Amino acid sequence: MGGCAGSPPRLSDSEGEETEPAPRPPLQDSQGAHWKNAVGFWLLGLCNNFSYVVMLSAAHDILSHQRTPGNQSHVDPDPTPTSHNSSSRFDCNPVSTAPPGAHQWDLCCRKLPPSCLFPFSADQPVCYFLLLTSPGPQDPGGEEDSDTAARQPLINSEASESKPGSGSPLSLQERWTVFKGLLHYIVPLVLVYFAEYFINQGLFELLFFRNTFLTHAQQYRWYQMLYQAGVFASRSSLRCCRIRHTWVLALLQCLNLAFLLVDVWLSFLPSIYLIFLIIVFEGLLGGAAYVNTFHNIALETSDEHREFAMATACISDTLGISLSGLLALPLHDFLCQLS
């Protein structure tokens, strides 16, 4: 009662133990934790995708290696250009590069001792336990809250009566409601992945230019490298470019697929460098669709729905890749039979 006007009342010792807010960590410590988390997640993403990307990029060499009789040791990095199918203008392998899998792992490990696999399997726990820090309470005036305030909720708040942080499992009705709210993000991401992997594993091998200094295998490697460069750039661009309407990216990626499919059929592009530009653009679209989809979902879902929503959206890339592989295999066989 005797305090100055406008100043908060002083808490007693007993009250202070229960109601006094915890002190904020120093700014320098929070910045250090931010950079540790950034490096940790970057390394985790690299470890998660590196082997898969290498196997996709080596798919043409692997199939050529398996075609060579008696070659059980390595893949020749610059094989002599030979026609895999002399009756086809596409210089096809007998099998499409669409289904990368156990054969690639088998090839990579024929000559390696088992001890070489330990660092690959141990680096992720090291990043997880030594680099990442536990998340603290969010700053009420932080960037995430300002972004969230500018967004519309993914589903209505009355869809669930459970309280945030209660830990109660979602009912089937709640899950169905969340899933329906995700469809305008899931469908575009499925289309993006379908189109880009149809291009990568169904058309890259068939986009063969004979009037260049690059062999067929080298052309395929450049296609894969340029695609991954575009993906890396766009997945790292979230801070400077955020896209809400991801269906635009899906539309552009499907146009990429249609354009390259027509070029495979008619061979009207005069230079491989035009293909290089299209493939970089393809990678930019794919990476942007992926990172913006999950960013938008994270902002537009409530706390109790976010984990389920993010896990559900993860089916998009797998579904798109699987569908593209199923269609790329018969397309490869059909085109390679053309003279």
UniProtKB/TrEMBL annotation:
Amino acid composition bias (Polar residues), ranges on this chain: 81-95
Region of interest: Disordered: 1-31, 66-95
Membrane topology: Multi-pass membrane protein
Keyword field contains Transmembrane: yes
Protein localization: Endomembrane system
GO cellular component: endomembrane system; lysosome; membrane
Residues passing through the membrane, by range: 182-200, 247-266, 272-291
Database matches in SUPFAM superfamilies: MFS general substrate transporter
Signal peptide: none
Entry-linked Pfam families: CLN3
Any one of the GO BP annotations: lysosomal lumen acidification
Cytoplasm is among the record's keywords: no
Protein keywords: Membrane, Transmembrane, Transmembrane helix, Transport
Major location (coarse): membrane
InterPro entries: Battenin_disease_Cln3, Battenin_disease_Cln3_subgr, MFS_trans_sf
Family: Belongs to the battenin family.
PANTHER family named among the record's database cross-references: BATTENIN
UniProt-recorded name of the protein: CLN3 lysosomal/endosomal transmembrane protein, battenin
Source organism (scientific name): Moschus moschiferus
Gene name, Swiss-Prot/TrEMBL: CLN3
